[in-house]
Amino acid sequence: MRSVLIWAAVAAALLVPVVAAARSPLLAWRDSFYIAAGFAGVVALGLLLLQPLLAGGYLPGVRIRLGRRLHAWVGAGLVLAVVAHVAALWVTSPPDVVDALLFRSPTPFSAWGVVAMWAVFASALLGALRGRLRLRLIVWRLCHVSLAVVIVVGSVVHAMLIDGTMEIVSKVVLSALVLAAVAKVVVDLRLLAGLRRMAWRSGR
């Protein structure tokens, strides 16, 4: 029953914002590219919830090895969602996208979104080059999790500052869940690092 409730909660957290966004009156008279950009952003925020849950092995019935493999695939989907979001906005208004990328946009949410975007790309690149970089596992994880924190904080602030496609209540709930999930990963990683230091000291 606990597993069913967890999966039901995750499914609701992912689907409700999409359904609520589809009913938004702010989409009236908008062109298809603007709508596509908005929904790509909604999907990206939802994928951010899955990432820490998969990486940390918090989803019942998903083994660690499978979870990490799915984490990589969801990460690729997140990159595609971000690219689709930016590309559709570019078609809608190229000058606004250029201003955002150059950090000269008058809208505060643009800078947060751009920082999160580059962190997404950096995180994906770090994951793809994991074998070639030859970093110690704990160092690689610290870098990856640090980028994840930047992504989540930037994305949540970006989403909260926009009065757009997403419905406010579902957006707040999803954003809170994303923050809680990544905070859980950060705490667990720190505990793991602490336990390893204790084991190393005791073995000296």
From TrEMBL:
Gene Ontology CC terms: membrane
Major location category of this protein: membrane
Keywords annotated in UniProt: Membrane, Transmembrane, Transmembrane helix
Signal peptide: none
Coiled-coil portions: none
Domain of life from the UniProt record: Bacteria
Domain Ferric oxidoreductase: 40-154
Residue spans crossing the bilayer: 31-50, 70-91, 111-129, 138-162, 168-187
Topological category with respect to the lipid bilayer: Multi-pass membrane protein
Subcellular location per the Swiss-Prot or TrEMBL entry: Membrane
Name of this chain's protein: Ferric reductase
Source organism of the structure: Neoroseomonas lacus
